[in-house]
Structures are given as structure tokens and as C-alpha cells.
Amino acid sequence: MRAPEWDDSGPEPIYRQVADYVAAQIADGTLAPGAKLPAERDLAEQWGVAYLTVRRAMRELRERGLIVTTQGRGTYVAK
20 to 30 A from 72, CA-CA: which of 1, 37, 58, 78? Predict the structure, then answer.
């Protein structure tokens, strides 16, 4: 997943921009149901954001029902 440009001067927090970016990829089919997401630390490095930002974004995506996380197995797009 390629890193977009994050707007850190706007009203939208970075974690929400990250969550919306992933949600858009799920909605347009770039991330298919059942697809495994990279590790949070890897995403943070790849996207140039803090690890805790990615963690918070993933928590929001879980709350939206878009992803599921299984401890020891990883995070997947919900089916």
C-alpha cells in the first residue's frame, strides 16, 4: 500500500486520514475481503507516521467493522 500525502495542518487528525485511506481502499476493491494487512509497525514506517497513529487508525477500522484482528495471526479485511 503506497503512502499518500497526509495533511497535518488540516482539521482532520492523521489517524482518521489513515483510517479513511484504508477504508477507501477496501471500498474500491484494492483491498479484497480476507486480504491480510501488513504489520502496524511496517505500515507506520511505509506511510511515514507514528506507530501509535496506525494503531489508533486500526482500532477505528475495527470499530467500523472493516477489519478484524486475530492475535498471533494478523489483521485482515473483514469478509
Answer: 1
| HEC readout, the chain | CCCCCCCCCCCCCHHHHHHHHHHHHHHCCCCCCCCECCCHHHHHHHHCCCHHHHHHHHHHHHHCCCEEEECCCEEEECC
CATH number, residue 41: 1.10.10.10
Which pLDDT score is estimated for 32? Answer: 98
Q: Chain-centre distance of CA 37, in angstroms? A: 8
Residue 6 lies in a domain: no
- Asked whether the whole model's pTM tops 0.90, one would answer yes
Q: Rounded to an integer, what distance in angstroms lies between the CA atom of residue 3 and that of residue 78?
A: 22
